[in-house]
Structure formats: structure tokens, C-alpha cells
Amino acid sequence: METPRQLEDQTVRQYRYLLRTASPDALQAAHREALDRLDEGRRAAVLAAVRAGLVAGQRLTPDATGAIARLVSIGERREPRAFLDACDPVALQALADAVINAEAAFGLFAGYAAWDGADPEPSSFGDDHGGNGAHEALGVQVNTAKDLARSHAAQTGVGAGGF
């Protein structure tokens, strides 16, 4: 029996590889380039996924490609699959194709053949370099705020403020 990962489209798999391995700057540049190529309807679908999966971007329009690129790049690193799982499959396919074919993505597939396809564990604020635990406490606060925002949005049908 095949698992969902085995059924995953090759383009989406390559896109996930970039999301997991590319530098934040390269990833953001590739997304910006890709979003600029998509039509407004597809950009709107990507923005809807950002709002639903990452609980962010409430004040953005589909033309704010730089801000959307930043949210997708950072948000998917912090909470793997949050954006991907919220994205409409047709919009995800279009975005994935545009990102992996973006000039900014050139040369970023060096380790793709050896990649196992695994998603990393979520990390709210990157590497913890010690200290007083403030990052961990803040991460709990952020996750609690996201849960409350999602709950509010589900109950009212109104978007939850721009995080």
C-alpha cells in the first residue's frame, strides 16, 4: 500500500526539498519571483493558505508578493506542513512549479537525490543557544495565540488578525 508521500507529485516534492534546505534568502527570492509569475487568482489562493495555515497575512493583498514570499518561507520553516497542508492542490502545484523553476532556485538541488523526504519537527524560533527559557515560553505564547486565532476564525468566519 502506498503512503501519501509515495503518491506525492515530483514537483511538490522538489518544492518541499527547497522549503526544508534552501537558505532563507534564496527561498524568499524564489518565492517572490514565483509569485510575481502567478496570476492573481493563484496568488489569492496562496495568500488564503498563508492565512489559514500560518495565521498570518490578514492585511495583505495578493499583490503583496514580497510579504507573502516572506511569510511562506519563514512560516513553513517554523511550522512544517502548516502552509502546505492548507494550500489548495492546484495553487500548490502552480506555486511549486514556479518556485523550482525560478532563477533564484538555480543550483539549490545538490542534495535532493539523497533526501529522504522527511519533514523536520516544528521550531518556533530557530536554534536555542541557552539562556533563561524565554524563547520556549514565548513559543508557547505564540502557539496559544495561534490556537485562539484559529478558533475565533472558525467560529466567526472572520480572519484572525495579522500575526
Protein traits:
single chain; 163 residues; mainly alpha; 7 helices; 0% strand
Short description:
With 163 residues, the protein is mainly α. It has helices at 10-21, 24-37, 40-54, 65-78, 82-86, 89-100, 134-156.
- Written as H for each helix and E for each strand, in order along the chain, the element string is HHHHHHH
Q: With helices defined by DSSP (H or I, 4 residues minimum), what is the helix count?
A: 7
Structural class: mainly alpha
For the record, give the distance between the C-alpha atoms at the N and C termini, rounded to a whole number: 40 Å
Helix coverage percent: 55-70%
| Largest sheet geometry | none
Contiguous low-pLDDT stretches (5 residues minimum) are 124-141
β-strand amount: under 5%
Mean pLDDT: 81
Rg, alpha carbons: 16 Å
Shape: globular
Tell me how many strands there are. Answer: 0
